[in-house]
Fold:
Amino acid sequence: MRASIRKSFSGAYENTSTRIFLLLFGVLFFIPAVLFHLARRGGNEYNRRLREMKASIDVDALRAEVTGNIQKKLSYFKRSEAGLDGEVTRVLQARLDEEAKLKLARAFPLLKPFSFTQSVLELLDTTAGMLLYCTLGLPAVLFAALMTNAFVRYTFGRLLLVVFVVFGVTFLVFTILHFSPMDPAYNILGQLATAEQVEQFHKAYGLDQPYIVQLVESFKGIVTLNPGKSFLGSEDVITMIVNRLPITMELTFASLLLAVAIAVPTGMLSALKPYSILDYVVMLLALIGLSMPSFWMGLILIYNCSIKLGWFPVSFIQGDWRSYVMPVIVLGTGMMASVARTTRSSMLEVLGQDYIVTAKAKGLSRRKVIMRHALGNAMIPIVTIIGIQFGSMMSGATVVEKVFNINGLGNLLVDRQFVPDIPVVLAGVVYVAIAVSLVNLLVDLLYAFLDPRIKAKIKGY
Structure:
């Protein structure tokens, strides 16, 4: 038990991303631990030996050398010797420390500098210290034990990056909207609004506050899931997003599934028969899919499949599955083309590797070679492009929602950015950024399951 607690503390403290949280959760324990470290620092063997090595150095000779070097440098650059003594003292102290550590490393190569980690480990070796850690620092004990799992630690580090992304996006979007030349008061009240009406509007929504105050309130609203009220109609922003975001996510994930289901097998077939008619046809279709603007493709589908043939509704009807068909096709076409091209190139590269030749030489069937050996190793670039394209699909959903009159989050953001309705636009963009970041986190975790080399790196092998 004692050994596992010591090991979990060492692992969590050595990792930069978890050290701050470990100290925060165990602050009641680490205050006496710091005092113990300061008391032990002067009497430990490393510092004692270091002082001995420093005392054995000829300080006068070193001072003369340092003084000569500094004078030569000042003479070369034609500078005055004002402040020479202070510079000599500073450089001399640094040289003394450097020379003493070098001599100590040569004389005692196994002796390491005394660190705070060592102090805590020595404290944990005592019954009183262990009892203190498990009582006052119980949250830190639980956190350190949780962080011993390599994948949990890896996921925690990626989640911290998501937090930084959220704060960064919030800062950038709010700053751009705040310094926009458009005044939401005039856009909502009209150009004939009086100065008193504009002032009353600004005061009602906090727009009369300084930039820093509004920025802090925006951060607070995003974190507490309470971004405030919309400038138009004073509707609750979080309610608007909760009602509209699921539609956008359904559209995006349906397009993602369609693209992957078609593009991956198509790219594999193209790679298995390179430079054949099938290969040329697939790559031509992929090129057309990449080149075709989504809004133009949407209008073509509406004209042919809705107006002329009557297969699907012209406008989006929530709850009617037919309303999703054309938007999903339009949104998934671009991603389908990218994934198909990536699958083909990745499979071609893997199929030319030596281990594939070895697998064939062992007599494995073509199906086993492709599915068991080739596809698994080719999936890393494919998963990467899927994660990247997800963000593009979320932004592309804005155009698709506008074309098909879908009452989703993208359509809302397009309409409100011209006001500008700061709470709605800010919250919408930030929550979309969170969704994209979480998908990229999932992609990072999939790497570990697809590639043993990445799994070994995460575990620290």
